[in-house]
Design brief:
The structure holds two protein chains of two kinds. By secondary structure, chain A is an alpha/beta fold. Chain A is globular and about 50 Å long. Chain A has a six-stranded mixed β-sheet with strand order 5-6-7-3-8-9, with helices on both faces. Helices cover 37% and strands 23% of the residues of chain A. Chain A contains eight helices and nine strands. Chain B has a single domain (2-230), classed as MetI-like fold (Orthogonal Bundle). By secondary structure, chain B is an all-alpha fold. Chain B is built from ten helices and no strands. The relative contact order of chain B is 0.16. Classes of the chains: A alpha/beta, B mainly alpha. Chains A and B meet through helix 2 of A and helix 5 and helix 6 of B.
Chain lengths: 228, 231
């Protein structure tokens, strides 16, 4: 196990104020906040794509790099088939039986029928599912998702959410950034609420939405709800 | 004009040996220069695109500026280097096709390197985070990006080829336009025009344009097919 993940007094330029957090195995964690609150930066610090300006990010187990994956708001696909894209990730990770794993992963996200089509000509929703398949094949312990449905229509969003639930059911720890309250309620177990680069509140989903303990969170929930 | 054109077409159609020799040497020199400049320019451009070191910006600006190098100046510098008294004089390359390849390589290396740098840099912005997330770093990341944009790089190489096959100043100075040895299409056209043999000049001009057109059409089709196949 590489969890828990510990952040100690971690800051990033002027975007994130020094914060300490522990991410445990188990419940799906939603990082919630308005645009510019620092959600993406926090995820990138956790995933190791950014180095903190101060403080320390530490995983509990060895080889943490290989045991986590991230899906971005806009998936980046290589100019090759969907199948080859999954295979590439497995090849980099040095996993045996890659072809079987890739086939299974594509079936899992419902893309078996387009396995041999060029990844870049798939629709936005399909490309995002392919990004999830690429992560699925790696069987990560932790999956970071950065606003994975922000640029997708409702149907594609539902499909993506189904795959995220399957990840959760398979035992992968979900850490997802979103500004969509509905999605946070549907997929999350706990909420970390960010406001202007600070963690303002951390609470179980049920309590957060019914009884937010800070005025910032209450205002966000109230202001956002009509558009969910 | 009409008469010269008719004579030119006849000359091309008859497969005149002198004409074929000139066309063959032209292609040989320019394609060799493109091969050399590609082998040097693509890695140079790729490294410049993904690395950060002091002076990098100055090199990028310099490289962009060198895209517009005047061929005659390149020819002159190559001439000075390769002439008997020059530092590379002992190689005995002046007035040989080898000297022409060197001059054209110098001329188009900045074009290929600068265009490659731009293409890789644009792609790198898009790919970097995803590749790092997958655990791909260093040379493997660079190769993945280069391979993924290989059809865009073809455009950079073609720009180099266009420049090499069309220039006259550099090959004229270091080659000397010696009949049967270093005479290529562009130098022959310049010479025949000044001699008044317009049909040979025009014939060569037609072939030159046809060659450049064919190469670009081929590259366009390859790119289009690749776009369909790989997206």
């Amino acid at each position: 196990m590489i969890l828990p993940l510990r952040l100690e007094e971690v800051s990033f330029l002027h975007v994130l104020q020094p914060l300490s957090l522990q991410i445990e195995a188990g419940p799906s964690t939603i990082i919630l906040g308005a645009n510019g609150a620092g959600k993406s930066v926090l995820m990138r610090l956790m995933h190791g794509l950014l180095a903190p300006s101060s403080g320390r990010v530490s995983w509990s187990g060895d080889d943490a790099r290989r045991r986590q994956a991230m899906v971005f708001q806009r998936p980046v696909m290589l100019r090759r088939s969907a199948f080859q894209n999954v295979l590439y990730a497995l090849d980099v990770a040095g996993v045996g039986g890659a072809e079987r794993l890739a086939t299974e992963a594509l079936a899992e996200v419902g893309l078996a029928h387009v396995a041999h089509q060029p990844a870049r000509v798939l629709s936005g929703g399909e490309q995002q599912r392919l990004a999830l398949a690429r992560a699925w094949a790696l069987h990560p312990e932790v999956l970071f998702l950065d606003e994975p449905t922000a640029s997708l229509d409702p149907t594609a969003t539902r499909e993506i959410e189904a795959v995220i639930r399957a990840f959760d059911a398979s035992g992968t720890k979900i850490v997802m950034a979103t500004h969509n309250l509905g999605q946070a309620r549907r997929l999350g177990d706990e909420v970390i609420y960010l406001h202007q680069g600070r963690v303002v509140e951390r609470a179980p989903v049920d309590r957060f939405f019914v009884q937010p303990s800070t005025p910032e969170a209450a205002a966000f929930i109230k202001g956002e709800l009509p558009w969910v | 004009m009409g008469e010269a054109l008719r004579a030119a077409l006849l000359l091309v159609a008859s497969g005149d040996a002198t004409l074929l020799g000139i066309v063959g040497l032209s292609l040989c020199v320019s394609l060799s220069a493109v091969a050399l400049a590609t082998a040097l320019g693509l890695p140079l451009g790729a490294v410049l695109a993904v690395t950060h070191f002091p002076g990098r910006r100055a090199i990028v600006v310099l490289l962009n500026a060198l895209m517009g190098l005047p061929p005659v100046v390149v020819g002159l510098v190559a001439y000075l280097l390769l002439s008997r008294a020059g530092p590379l004089g002992s190689l005995g390359l002046l007035f040989t096709p080898g000297a022409m390849v060197i001059a054209q390589t110098v001329l188009i290396l900045p074009i290929i390197a600068a265009l490659c740098r731009q293409a890789v840099e644009d792609a790198w912005v898009e790919y970097q985070e995803q590749l790092r997330s997958l655990g791909v770093e260093g040379a493997r990341a660079a190769l993945t990006v280069l391979w993924d944009i290989r059809f865009s790089l073809l455009t950079a190489v073609l720009a180099g080829l266009g420049r090499a096959s069309a220039e006259v100043g550099a090959v004229m100075i270091v080659g000397g336009n010696i009949d049967g040895v270093t005479r290529v299409m562009t130098t022959a056209i310049a010479l025949e025009t000044s001699k008044g043999d317009l049909s040979l000049a025009l014939g060569l001009g037609l072939v030159l344009i046809a060659v450049v057109l064919a190469l670009n059409a081929a590259a366009f089709l390859v790119r289009e097919a690749a776009q369909r196949r790989y997206g």
